[in-house]
Amino acid sequence: MSDSTIPSTIGSQQDEEKAIQPPVVSESPALDSALPPEGGLRGWLCCAGGSLGLIGIFQTTYQETLLKDYSSSEISWIFTIQLALIWAPGSLFGRIVDTYGPRPVMLPCTFLCLFSLCMTSLATEYYQIILAQGIGYGLGAGGIFTTCLVCVSQWFVKQRGLALGVTVAGSSIGGVIFPFFLKLVMQDVGFNGMVRYTALFLGIVLVGAFFLVSARLPPKKWDSEMAWIDFKVFKNRGFAFYCLGSYFVMWGLWAPFDYLPSMAQLSGMSDSLALYLLAIVNAASLFGRIIPGHIGDKVGYFNIIVASAFLSCITILCLWLPFDYYASNAGLIVFALAYGFFSGAFVSIMMPCCAKSGSLETLGRQIGTYQGVIAISPCSGNSEHVEPEDVPDSDQELHRPSGHGVDVEDDGRKGPD
């Protein structure tokens, strides 16, 4: 064999080896090299802005104020509608963010949130509260929620779990702050005044979020032929089963939170301790949304989300259900810590898992389609609540967390509106 044939032989062997090796698929095709080091300063500022934006996703209940003649199950539909609308329009908002960036969504949704709170403070009828708190505030909060998740996901790849965990931790921060803030304000100015002070506080927070949240990708032209909901993603069986599994987890994820205040009162816990109990839940959720996200960046997001769903279930079976027979304040506190952490981990890892099946250019539609699937679960899984007469406390001052914030009820003391 001549020397001239050796290079060609070696070259052909190298070509065969390359053909055998599987291609490396990037999580963000053609854009990873253009990204600054894991988001850079603008990326982390966007993350901070997203966390500020999600502080404002909260709920307020009316059992002892405006809707005394309505049952808890009827009142619960206000928050069921709000929670569903936080998720359902994700495909609409996500596509707008993909095309034009965050500003066209953040500005009107911020205004809608503040306007809805102002209208809530003026509402006197059930249908008015449904329109203001349920529909209006739900749509506004949903736009902010989707925008923050999409924009933060654009800035991060290798640390996406940590970044999104910090972002969704904003709602846990709100869950720690709002019980004390709303309780103190309501003692002085009454329910309506409390809602207006809340609107002022959220106005300041959301303005900060508006200027901090930014898109990694430049604006582009509107594609009229593009579908609002990307049904093609369901051809990926892994993604389809992930959506189905998430639906069933979300179907029951908030149920322990719904019954936690009533369970605390039935076990003899005081109202003040019940208030601290919800702060404990949200504080544990704060760590649960950040730490597992960071671990997921190292060991894989799907490993973490499966573990968090399993441990949340075990916590309910081992710590929650036995309360019917062995109720205690210590047990409730342990449950609040454990379930707050594990359920918070599931919430923080949902979007990194979803983002792995798409590219940066289509993150909005990808996340929005996923949100549309799981938006139905609150309507069927969150529709029943413990009635007030089942709780032996005459004051019945319940503070119900939603997973995105806190519910606070008036104690009957009124102040100037």
TrEMBL record:
Biased composition regions of type Polar residues, renumbered to the chain: 1-13
GO cellular component: membrane
Database matches in Pfam families: MFS_1
Membrane-spanning segments: 75-93, 129-150, 162-182, 194-218, 239-257, 273-292, 299-323, 329-351
Sequence segments annotated as region (Disordered): 1-30, 381-417
UniProt keyword Membrane present: yes
UniProt-listed InterPro entries: MFS, MFS_trans_sf, Proton-linked_MCT
Taxonomic superkingdom: Eukaryota
Family note: Belongs to the major facilitator superfamily. Monocarboxylate porter (TC 2.A.1.13) family.
Descriptive protein name: MFS transporter
Record organism: Aspergillus felis
